[in-house]
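Table S2 (continued). Query chain:
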Amino acid sequence: MPNSVYFFSLIIGGLVLIGLGANLLVASTENISKKYNISGFVSSFIFIGLATSSPEILISILSSLEGKGNIAIGNALGSNIANIAFVFALTILLFGSINSEKNKILSKEVGVSFRKPSLFLILVILSIAIYPVLYNGIVEFYEGIFLLSFFIILFYLYKKYCYSNGDVIENSKYISGLRIFSILIAGLAFLLIGTKIFLIGSTGVAKSFGISDYVIGLSIAAIGTSLPELASSIESARKKRFDFIIGNILGSNIFNIAIVVGIVGILDNNLPGKSLSITHINRDMVMMFITMIGFYYIIKNYNQYITKILCLALLISFTLYQFNLYGISI
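Corresponding output:
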């Protein structure tokens, strides 16, 4: 009983820190966008997306150094699923249900925020590329190098041929750059510390039930490391910055595949007997692509009522998927 109280205290404390970190992160990203005339979509992709992926990256480094790369792989795939089917779907349901005026704002901003589908294309290409990497159940060193290099090349091509700074907002020179980045770093620190505390608590509960590393990565760790995305998305919705939500989800999912899984290949020693089941990988890849299709359809064909139905369907599918991970049949 004392252990349970301790673990649940950690979970609550971690959630509080994550919420505070998300608030600081969104505020600093908004100021970066204003001061340096960077579009909200791109600044959120880079700063919020990378920052909210930092827990996954940290877990990838630590678990790989401990020879537990399966946690990181499960965390990356599970986080990408959770970011869309849980974070994005829940945020849109909450955001679109506030009042009719905000629904009009949302509908208008969708077309503006997602007029550069090339970043989604990068996500699709990386998601396809990861399948042959995971096919044998482990990530080799050269495969980790490939993922990181492939990501750099794709992002360079996007920046060179696709990116245009057409939706910038008025420059605000009066904002101190030092203050902005200090707030950004503080927000990142709160996110990392809060996520670490949350994961200690939730993983402690999970391990007491004998749950495997890969399932912990797909479920507990994935949901835990997706909480920064959720908190940031809700904070962005509160500020009516739908472009931040999309940039956050796209950036985080791209970084999860390229950086998180890439780190596993480079740092993990890939000992025999640690390979993942291709059946499990197939299940998780199918779920990941289903959520990506739903995400793309919602963004490109926004309709208030259809969107709510699709978001609800994503949440239900995510719940059933989690039940399946633990062998619970309904």
